[in-house]
Amino acid sequence: MAAEWLADDLWRAHVSWLTPPWVGNTDGGRAAFDAREWLNRIERAHYRSLIFYTKHHDGYCTFRSRYSRLQPERDFLGECVEEAHRRGVRVLAYYSSCLDQVSGREHAGWRVLGRDGNPAEGWFSNLWPGAYVCINNPDYRSLVLNQCAELLERYAVDGLWLDVFSPHTADN
Q1: What residues form DSSP beta bridges with 132?
Q2: Which of 56, 108, 111, 119 counts the most CB atoms within 10 A of its CB?
Q3: Which pLDDT tens digit goes with each residue over 148-166?
Q4: Cα–Cα distance measured from residue 46 to residue 96, given in angstroms and rounded to the nearest whole number
């Protein structure tokens, strides 16, 4: 795939649309998601590419993953990619790989630990407690690789933004 557009199209819509379960019960929440309306607005703003969150630090996916216990009620990523490509707009799939609150909560053994044996803390701790998971843990790495492969195999995304958080400190 030619990637010249990636270097040339530096002005992208960054769609920070997240899907934890509590969002579904709010005005403008998940039930109100309308890919056509989003793309109408993105096109009116003259964007030709967008970044769409497939999994944020909270750990919830916007697509139905074979590797997640928690599933969204709709395939939000699929709806967005389909509508974007129908209009010639490119989609980069954003995936948070080291901050994953769902995995950290469900698998405490996957968390990054400090030298004192307690979960490592950082700027993210108040927002996503227990979310800092270790990409070097074989089980968590398998989850990340499987979900990324799933994204690339099932969706015609134009790129993958793998968000990797790695504070290298002597304490971790």
Answers
A1: 99
A2: 56
A3: 999 999 999 999 999 876 5
A4: 27
